[in-house]
Design goal:
By secondary structure, this protein is mainly alpha-helical. 39% of the residues lie in helices and 9% in strands.
Length: 256
């Protein structure tokens, strides 16, 4: 994804010389892909790609207003506030900011808000009105290739979600090295971006994502996502982009 909007324009790609700062000297070369912008910039909240009542009855407008308009907005505000105090990270795309602040597993203070901001944008775009059912074309074929069947994948995704302890996320990712799809879970704000995996879809397993609509019934929430909400159109688009970086081997499976 990597989308962000800025108050002032800066170059679309942050390919710069190393930033050397005593505060971040332990980061070594992690900042070589980011640029300190010449003007103050800020990330902005991106509106979901549908009306806030469009996912009903499976996700209510009330939940979207609280989740997108409250929790997601708060992550963004905290992130911009932190960057306003120390703008050395300004100039990164949001993808780069997440990777840099993860700091190889020793996260910087900005990481949680940056990652949650990214995760939520990806989550809204992992759903669509009238979603669910089954993927088509190459996405289905790749799932069948890597999981044995779509039902196997679905069972794996649901099981992984329901065994996620505490707060976190469940993801379908494309593993670059293994050249295959896998279901993974992450804790708190962690995103597979930091492991250099390519996310395809995700599901928010923080309680604020489902307690209003499902009264704490995680299983009903997860099944509603898989059966009625997940956007296989978004997955197809993301797989198409991923194939530019990953050779999925034989048989050649077109995504579209």
């Amino acid at each position: 994804m990597g989308w962000c909007s800025c108050i002032n324009l800066f170059p679309p790609s942050c390919q710069l010389s190393e930033l050397k700062s005593t505060m971040y000297e332990r980061q070594k070369k992690l900042f070589d892909s980011c640029q300190r912008a010449s003007k103050v910039v800020a990330y902005r909240l991106k509106t979901p790609p549908y009306k806030l009542d469009a996912l009903e009855p499976y996700m209510s407008q009330r939940t979207l207003e609280l989740h997108w308009g409250g929790h997601h907005r708060q992550y963004l505000e905290y992130l911009n506030r932190a960057l306003g105090k120390n703008d050395i990270l300004y100039g990164c795309t949001i993808d780069e900011l997440v990777k840099v602040t993860y700091n190889n597993g020793s996260p910087l203070p900005e990481f949680n808000n940056a990652a949650q901001f990214w995760n939520h944008d990806f989550f809204w775009e992992s759903m669509q009105p009238g979603g669910g059912k089954m993927p088509e074309l190459g996405v289905l074929q790749q799932i069948e290739k890597d999981f044995g069947s779509f039902n196997n994948f679905k069972e794996k995704f649901v099981e992984t979600a329901l065994t996620t302890f505490g707060s976190g996320w469940v993801w379908l990712v494309l593993k670059k090295e293994e050249r295959r799809l896998e279901v993974v879970k992450t804790s708190n704000a962690v995103t597979p971006l930091v492991w250099d995996d390519i996310p395809i879809i995700n599901l928010d397993m923080w309680e604020h994502a489902y307690y209003l609509d499902y009264k704490g019934d995680r299983e009903e929430y997860v099944k509603a996502f898989m059966d009625h909400l997940v956007s296989w159109n978004a997955a197809m688009s993301r797989m198409g982009r991923a194939e530019a970086f990953v050779n999925l081997g034989e048989p050649k499976i077109p995504v579209a």
